[in-house]
């Protein structure tokens, strides 16, 4: 299962950060260096233990929740029974914020 997650990550990792004038990857790297987000490999390991399946997409977005800005990983997972799930994860602490069918 970990192998499937890592292969999914390597084969189609598409880190996206909401647009501003700087490059997306640079904003994500800076957020990681500041400790605002956890490494995606760590997040995937943690999520893989809770939500089995193959990772088919990843996005990193900056959102406002409860009046404060937060980084959210949106991870799309194809479950063993063929369902597509979207898992929203707090990028700072790795906690699942929302889990829903992605139909």
From TrEMBL:
Species of the source: Allochromatium vinosum (strain ATCC 17899 / DSM 180 / NBRC 103801 / NCIMB 10441 / D) (Chromatium vinosum)
Q: Which UniProt keywords apply?
A: Signal
- The signal sequence is 1-19
Protein name in UniProt? Membrane protein-like protein
Task: Please verify whether the record's keywords include Signal.
Answer: yes
Q: The PepSY domain covers which part of the protein?
A: 48-98
Mention any Pfam family matching this sequence.
Answer: PepSY
Its ancestry begins with: Bacteria, Pseudomonadati, Pseudomonadota, Gammaproteobacteria, Chromatiales
């Amino acid at each position: 299962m970990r192998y499937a997650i890592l292969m999914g990550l390597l084969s189609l990792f598409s880190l996206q950060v909401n647009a501003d004038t700087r490059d997306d990857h640079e904003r994500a790297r800076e957020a990681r260096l500041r400790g605002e987000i956890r490494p995606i490999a760590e997040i995937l390991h943690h999520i893989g233990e809770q939500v089995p399946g193959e990772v088919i997409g990843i996005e990193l977005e900056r959102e406002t929740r409860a009046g404060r800005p937060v980084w959210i990983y949106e991870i799309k997972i194809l479950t063993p029974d063929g369902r597509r799930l979207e898992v929203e994860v707090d990028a700072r602490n790795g906690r699942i914020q929302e889990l829903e069918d992605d139909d």
